[in-house]
Amino acid sequence: MQALKESYPCPPSDASGQKVLELTVNNHPGVMSHICGLFSRRAFNMEGILCMPIGDGKLSRIWIQIAGNSHLDQIVKQLEKLEDVRSAVLHPAEHEVFAKLEEYFQGS
Amino acid sequence: MDKMNGAQLTIKLLERFGVDIIAGIPGGSNLPLYDALSHSTTIRHVLARHEQGAGFIAQGMARSSGRPAVCFATSGPGATNVMTALADAKLDSIPIICITGQVPQSLIGTDAFQEIDTYGMSIPITKHNFLVRSARELLEVIPAAFRIAGEGRPGPVLIDIPKDVQLEMIEFADWPAMPQRECVKHYRKQDILQAAAMINAAERPILYLGGGIRHGNAHDAAIRLAEKNNLPTTMTLLGLGSMPTNHPLALGMLGMHAARYTNLILEECDLLLVAGARFDDRATGKIAEFCPGAKVIHIDIDPGEINKLRTAHLQLVGDAGSVLAELLPQVESKNRQDWLNRMAFLKKENPFIMPGADDPCMPYGLIRQIAALADHETLIATDVGKHQMWVAQAYPFCRPRQLLTSGGLGTMGFGLPAAIGASLAHPQKTVVCFSGDGSILMNIQELATAVEQRANVKIFVLDNTSLGLVRQQQNLFFGKQYFASEYQHHVDFVTIARGFGMQAFALGASDDPVATLTKAMQTQGPCLVHVPIGRNEEVYPMVPPGAANKEMIGGENHASA
Ligand SMILES: Cc1ncc(C[n+]2csc(CCOP(=O)(O)OP(=O)(O)O)c2C)c(N)n1
Ligand SMILES: [Mg+2]
Prior knowledge:
A: alpha+beta, B: Rossmann fold, binds thiamine diphosphate
C-alpha cells in the first residue's frame, strides 16, 4: 500500500481537465435517481450524464462527465457503494462519447 | 409448489429469516400484510403509537442485538412518519428493514389517497431501497434486504410494496435461502506488517475506536492490542463501551464534550490508529487542527470513509475485528513508560470535573447513583441533549452495545422507543432511559406501548424546564439571549406517566432520593422518575462548534490552579 500525501484535509485528486465516468448499473426506474441524488447530496459536480439500456435490457450504461477538480476518489468509492452499480470505470482523459454529441448541444 | 399471496409470502420469508418481533402501525395500504401477520405463530407484533416510535423500537432491537430488525408502516403519512428513524439508522449504520405499504400500482403517480413517493423520499436516508413490482420479486428482494442491511457497513433498507402486489397470488417451487454476506477484505499481509511497524515505531500512539467496533465485535481484539502495546484508547460516542471506562488505558470519549485531558493528549500523539470511526466533526473539532502531528492508520469496512476527511497514511479496508486480530501477533509488547507517564500527568493536571457527583439529585450524581444500582447487564438508552452528554461522560460503560444513543443524527425522541425495543429484544435485562423534558415529549405516546408490552424500562426525565443544550449554546455563543429555549409552561410528567398507566416517582418530592431511586430500579415493568435539574447546570468542557478541540470552555481544575 502506498503511503499517501502528508497534507490534509484530503486534496482533490486532480486539478485539471474534465473526466469521464463509465458506469454499468441495474436497469430499473429508480436507478437514475440513486445516481443523480448521490451527486447532489454529496456536493459532487456533475457536468453531463447519458444513460441507455444495454444488452437484453437488464443493465444500463451511464456516462457521466465530471469537472477535473472534483474529489474523484470519493466519487468513485461512493458510487461503488450503491447496490445498483455493477462497475465504475474512470477514464482519465476526455472521452469521445461526449465529444461526438457536441453537435446536439450547440447554441445558448 | 407453494401458493400464496405477496403479503403471505412476505410474512413467511420474515419468519424463515428469524424475525420474531415486528413493530408497526397498520393502515389502508398495508392491511394485507397485517392480515397475513395475524396468522403468524412465531412473529409477535408490537403496536406502536407513532411510526417514528415503531422505527426506533426496531432500532432498539437492532442496536442491542446486532441483528436486523423490522418495522411496518402504511403508505403516505405512515411512511413520512418513519423517515426520521431511517435517517437516524443510516447515520449510525444500524441494520433495520422497514416495510411500507403503497397504493396499488394502477394508482401510482395519480396523487391517490395516501400516495407519496416513498421510494424517492427514502433514497438519501437508506443504504438501499426497493419498490416491488410483482409478488415474484419478493422472493429476491426480501433476502436481498437482509443481506444488504447486515453486510459490510450495516444500514437501513426500505421495501415499498404496493397493495396489489401484496394481494397478487403466486406459485413457486423453492424457498430462497438467506444469501451469504460478502466479506470485505482489501488489504494484504504486507499492509498489516507495515501497520505493525508504524505502531512499533511510534512514540506517542493513540487508539481511536468508533461504532464500527461494535458492529465488528472487535472489542476483544482492540483491548488485547491496546494492552500488548500499551496504547491509550479513546472512543467516540458510539464507540463507548468498546473498552471499559475503568480500564487503565481508557481515555473516554473524545471531542466536543470530552474530558480536558483526553483532547489534550490527542494533541500530542504521533500516530492515530483509527478503527471503525469516521472523523465526525463532533469528535474531531476543526479537522485541520485535529491531532496535528499524527500519522493516521485507518481501519474501516467502508472504503468511502478512507481519505474522506483526513488523509490516511495507511488504509486497511476490512472487518475491524479481523484486522485488529491480524495486527496483534505483529505488534511488539511495549511498556511505553514515558507516554503513559505523560498521560497520567495530563490526567492529573486536567481531570474530569463532575460537580455534584455525590448528590443523586444532581445530573452527575444521579447518573452515578443509577450506575451503582444497575448491574453489568443493564442497558442504557438516552435521548438527545445535555442529559445525553452527561451520561456519555459519567456512566461507567463496561461493554459494547450497552449504550443506545442517537449519535449521527442526534434525534430527540430516540430514547424511549429505543429503550422499549432493547427491552423487547432482551426481556431479562433492565433498560434505563435517560431523557430530557424536551426529548421525552417528542415520543411520549410510546409510554402506552411500554405499558402495554410490560417493557422493563426505567425512564429518568431530567427536567431542566428547557431545551438545555440549545440554551447552553445561547449562553456561551449568543450573549445569553435565551430565545425559544426555555419552557414557559411546565408539564406534570408524573401525572402524565400515571395517566398512561405507568408507575411514577417524583424525586423532587422525596425525602430519601437514594431510596426512591432504588425503589424505581426494583419496580417490575416500566416506570418513570421525574428529576428536577437546575436550568444553569451546564455540560463542560465544551469545544465551540467549528473550533479546534484544544479550545475547550469550562471544566477547569480550579483545585490545582
Ligand atoms: C428532533 C430534534 N429537534 C431539535 C434538536 C436540536 N436540539 C438538540 S438538543 C436540544 C434540547 C434537548 O432538550 P432536552 O431533551 O430537554 O434535553 P436537555 O438538553 O435539556 O438535557 C434540541 C432542541 C434535535 N437534536 N432533535
Ligand atoms: Mg431539558
